[in-house]
Design brief:
With 973 residues, the protein is an alpha+beta fold. A hairpin with a 5-residue loop joins strand 41 and strand 42. Helix 7 runs antiparallel to helix 9, helix 9 runs antiparallel to helix 10 and helix 21 crosses helix 29. The chain is globular, with a radius of gyration of 31 Å. The N and C termini lie far apart (71 Å).
Length: 973
């Protein structure tokens, strides 16, 4: 009797399990069909290192090893770009005698492929270079992928970069009416350049070597970003520079004489050209050593700094040498950014490294300015003929390049091992269970041992190169020590997994920061051997005088005021508040003075303020005319209180609003008026790891049913799918927008947030409740995480899929170099409609610019808002921001045409545009601030409290209805 009862219970449990399994489990990966247990999901010994091997197999280091011993023929083969054998795609055009270059050149667009045939007479390694002209594009570096005989020779060949040339727009500095220098705007000055194909990450100090066997081959260049005109490709052997001793002997043998009595100073900020718009001249106010100097005013007096840190970036100066002969060289520099390693530069004169030591010039750490003499106590001598010469300094990783590359490889291996362990233990291992990891992951201890030895060796190398211990080496030692402890006692691995993950995250940050080599330059000196270099402003007396003067100046300087201040009472002026950083404000003010005030005669007083003061200041009558970069909830809240101006009163409003998608304007509509113009618009995309998709034989999900199927496979491998985080407001009382995941599902299911023109919440409708149930089931049935750091989990592979704001793309591009090329983003999954189509609607957020109702001159304020949201201004600002702060600061403008002009890689931008078409705005209504707040409360009541979804949402919608009713009565609606 007891046995039959037990059997019955087991049968019922089995049936329940079958019922709860997601429908369509067989649709997805073959991996899921074969996986019957967690143990079987773990790769066996044969395939355990397949993923890591695949990663390393196609890297440049492995490529060189594969062809080890191949000769380097001293031959030169030139391929004329116009003599191609095949093109694929559009945008190709042959151009005769282009920009002073005789013969035919070939214009290539920002997408497509072009192929050439090449005949190799002698097998071996060849360098490759390209003679190109950077035609106008989107202001970013030109990117191409190279294929030999239809295949990528190695992974790094997919990311070849070619620089544009940038100069200051004006020869002379301009000042505002406060006596401060204005930062010169950077413009392109294109010219013909020849560049060898080299590693864009900077891990290789020398240009790439490409192996060719004897016979016929094809070379293919595929466009990834930006158009360019090509004249020729060249296969050649690059000569290595000789050591200084040999060069000096040759100079002595030739009887070259030293110059006499010459001392030239070239200001750093007077650079002739640079490779990036980020390398604009800077203002240094912390030292008296710089020139020109002021203790109170902003003076443009240096160049470089933290902006000049990425391998491959260069700055060059033109020197007019008064007489032929030998000269010594020095730079007045500040390198107070990185200690434990030093900043490295490659120095060339007229495009040539003068001798071997100049390929890796070290600039060591010091807290203030110093004179770096090339060669130190016994200065190097450079032979220079009378006339103009170009000195270039290029960021290089120098001696640290192979070490950083090794740490990146180690990080990838350790992250791969973390995922394998995760497949067995899950993210929350049972500390009392013996997982027998050393048996189930056969190569685990071997990998740990190899990486421990590798990291220990690198830490020793760092100390040897820098001459001191530092935090740079401490992190490597900590990781190596932990690996050693895990090897000694493998049973402790499950409970120490969190610490292991933290240390690998630290290792990723180490790779990112070690690649950065900042250096600030005040001046370049060229002197005859008999002259001394000046050291003015570097003594204690100068420092004391500077600090005293700066202290007194602080009492009389208004640091909130940006740029020109309106002084004439009869002049039209607009007071604008901005809440972002000083860099953005300075850029904006420079643009205002240059293209707005000069064209309209309207002066703008731009103030950098904390935007939480906007409401109290407005109520007190001390507010601005225009407020920028404010949240989506504020314009309607101000409009209800008659504090914001209705923009539909202006005759050309419809024309201006057509610059944006309707979804961007929706949050600012209220009672038949529109109370703000969109500045930025963001929405979610689906991010995924290509390598893990391939490893587990998965498909990128197109529908939510496919997501459910995918969740089962990921769960078996103890991996996760990230939905937009569900978090409380960081600041008490701050508005919580409705969760973007719920909003997307609601819109895809044909629902809405409010009915009857915003008089009632529609979340208690059948669609609203079913959507809420669908949303919460991801957390109750599949146990998805509510709060997490997606960028880090995506990087380790723990969360290979996730839905997040598209601006995360910019962060990942900079933050996770070790997974470059191994991830992508696509439109979010959709809901299948009754007619079979797929609805991928996604909710959008953003920021706006609003005009206050008490603006003194509404017409002038409207002119400013029109100028600011125009295509040209938004494009320039977006490019300036990216130039200023790098790819991580790419601007998510709401202007449709301006977004087209920002430098996205073509394939990624196509996906972004496809999702943009589905963006939908969330309306704001009186009392609407309760919607996000109580949606959050209902979510937690169901997911954490275990209350049935329908009951939770019905309870909290009543609160929303009551608040909307109360607010409508309050404002007489």
């Amino acid at each position: 009797m007891r046995q039959s009862k037990m059997a019955k219970n087991i049968t019922l449990a089995a049936m329940a399990l079958l019922i709860t399994l997601p429908a369509g489990l067989n649709v997805q990966a073959d991996a899921s069909a074969q996986a019957t247990s967690a143990v079987e999901q773990v790769p066996n010994e044969t395939t355990a290192t397949a993923e890591t091997a695949a990663f390393n197999e196609h890297k440049y280091v492995s490529y060189l090893t594969e062809h080890e011993g191949a000769p380097r023929p001293d031959q030169e083969i030139v391929l004329e770009a116009a003599n191609y054998s095949h093109v694929e795609g559009s945008g190709f055009e042959k151009l005769p005698d282009y920009e002073g270059m005789a013969g035919q050149s070939l214009l290539t667009g920002e997408s497509g492929k072009v192929e050439w045939n090449v005949q190799i007479a002698e097998e071996g390694f060849y360098n490759l270079s390209m003679l190109y002209y950077p035609v106008e594009g989107k202001s970013s570096a030109i990117e191409r992928a190279l294929y030999i005989d239809g295949k990528l020779p190695f992974q790094e060949a997919a990311f070849l970069q070619f620089d544009r040339i940038w100069v200051d727009q004006l020869d002379q500095l301009v000042q505002d009416n406060q006596g401060n220098d204005l930062r010169p705007r950077q413009i392109e000055k294109p010219g013909w350049s020849e560049k060898a194909f080299q590693d864009s990450n900077g891990y290789e100090n020398e240009p790439f070597l490409f192996y060719f066997s004897k016979g016929s081959h094809t070379l293919t260049l595929e466009s990834s970003r930006e158009p360019v005109v090509l004249k020729q490709l060249k296969l050649f052997k690059q000569a290595a520079p000789l050591p200084y001793e040999e060069v000096k002997k040759q100079l002595d043998a030739d009887g070259v004489q030293a110059s006499i009595g010459q001392l030239l100073r070239i200001e750093g900020e007077d650079a002739a050209a640079k490779s990036s718009p980020t390398l604009y001249p800077l203002s240094e106010r912390s030292s008296a050593a710089v020139h020109p100097y002021s203790s109170s005013k902003i003076k443009i007096n240096t160049i470089g700094g933290l902006n000049w840190r990425i391998p491959g970036q260069w700055i060059e100066w033109e020197i007019d040498v008064p007489e032929s002969g030998l000269y010594k060289m020095a730079f007045k520099t500040q390198q107070n950014y990185v200690r434990g390693i030093y900043s490295t530069r490659k120095l060339t004169i007229d495009g040539v490294v003068p001798f071997e030591e100049m390929a890796k010039v070290p600039f060591r750490y010091k807290s203030s300015y110093r004179l770096d003499i090339m060669g130190g106590d016994e200065p190097y001598l450079y032979k220079l003929e009378k006339g103009k010469h170009v000195v270039r300094l290029e960021v290089s990783l120098g001696e640290f390049a192979p070490l950083i590359r090794e740490v990146e490889d180690s990080l990838y291996n350790l992250n791969s091992m973390y995922r394998k362990i995760l497949m067995i233990t899950g993210t929350k291992p049972d500390e009392y269970r013996d997982y027998q990891l050393d048996k189930k992951v056969p190569d685990m201890l071997e990998v740990f041992g190899a990486e421990r030895d590798r990291l220990t060796g690198i830490a020793k190398q760092l100390v040897r190169l820098s001459g001191q211990s530092s935090d740079q080496e401490a992190l490597l030692k900590t990781m190596a020590q932990q690996l050693g402890e895990l090897m000694d006692d493998p049973d402790t691995i499950p409970r120490r997994l969190a610490a292991y993950k933290t240390n690998t995250g630290g290792l990723g940050t180490w790779v990112q920061t070690a690649r950065e080599q900042p250096l600030e330059i005040d001046a370049l000196y060229l002197a005859s051997p008999d002259k001394k270099f000046p050291k003015k402003g570097m003594g204690f007396g100068s420092k004391f005088k500077h600090e005293t003067a700066t202290f007194f100046a602080s009492f009389f300087t208004d640091y909130n005021q940006i740029g020109n201040v309106s002084e004439e009472d009869d002049q039209k002026s607009v007071t604008v508040w901005i809440g972002s950083g000083r860099d953005q404000a300075n850029t904006m003010k420079a643009m205002i003075d240059e293209t707005f005030t000069s064209a309209t005669g309207i002066n703008v007083n731009l103030k950098l303020v904390n935007m939480t003061t906007l409401l109290p200041a407005t109520l007190a009558g001390q507010g601005p005319d225009v407020a920028m970069q404010i949240g989506n909830d504020l314009p309607v809240n101000f409009a209800m209180r008659n504090a914001a101006a209705d923009l539909t009163q202006f005759a050309d409003f419809d024309e201006v609003s057509s610059r944006f998608r309707e979804s961007a304007v929706v949050p600012y509509r209220y009672d038949s008026g529109v109370y703000a113009l969109p500045e930025t618009q963001t929405f979610n995309m689906l991010f995924y790891r290509k390598d893990i998709v391939e490893e587990l034989h998965l498909q990128v999900p197109q529908t939510w049913d496919e997501v459910s199927t995918l969740l089962a496979v990921l769960s078996k491998n103890h991996m996760q799918f990230g939905l937009p985080v569900v978090v409380q407001s960081a600041v008490q009382g701050q508005n919580i927008p409705p969760n973007s995941m719920y909003a997307a599902l609601l819109f895809q299911n044909g629902g809405q947030f409010y009915r009857d023109g915003g008089q009632e919440s529609d979340l208690d409708s059948r669609t609203g409740m079913e959507t809420f149930k669908q949303w919460t089931e991801f957390y109750t049935d599949y146990k998805l995480e509510r709060e997490y750091d997606f960028a880090n989990r995506f990087r380790t592979g723990e969360m290979p899929f996730g839905i997040a704001d598209y601006t995360l793309y910019n962060q990942l591009s900079v933050f996770a170099p070790e997974i470059r090329g191994m991830w992508g983003f696509v439109p979010i999954p959709g809901t299948v409609q009754t007619d079979g189509t797929l609805d991928r609607t996604v909710s959008s957020g953003g920021s706006a610019v609003v005009m206050m109702d008490k603006a003194k001159d509404k017409e002038a304020s409207w002119e400013f808002m029109k100028w600011w949201t125009s295509e040209e201004t938004q494009t320039v600002f977006g490019r300036e921001m990216e130039g200023l702060m790098g790819a991580a600061a790419r601007y998510p403008t709401a202007n449709i045409k301006a977004l087209d002009s920002l430098p996205w890689p073509v394939a990624d931008y196509e996906n972004l545009k496809a999702q943009f078409e589905w963006a939908e705005g969330v309306p704001e209504v009186p009392g609407g601030y309760f919607t996000g707040r109580h949606l959050f409360n209902a979510f937690y009541k169901t997911v954490v409290g275990g209350v049935e979804a329908r009951e939770s949402i019905m309870d909290y919608v009543q609160y929303i209805q009551d608040e909307i009713t109360t607010k409508r009565k309050e404002f007489g609606l």
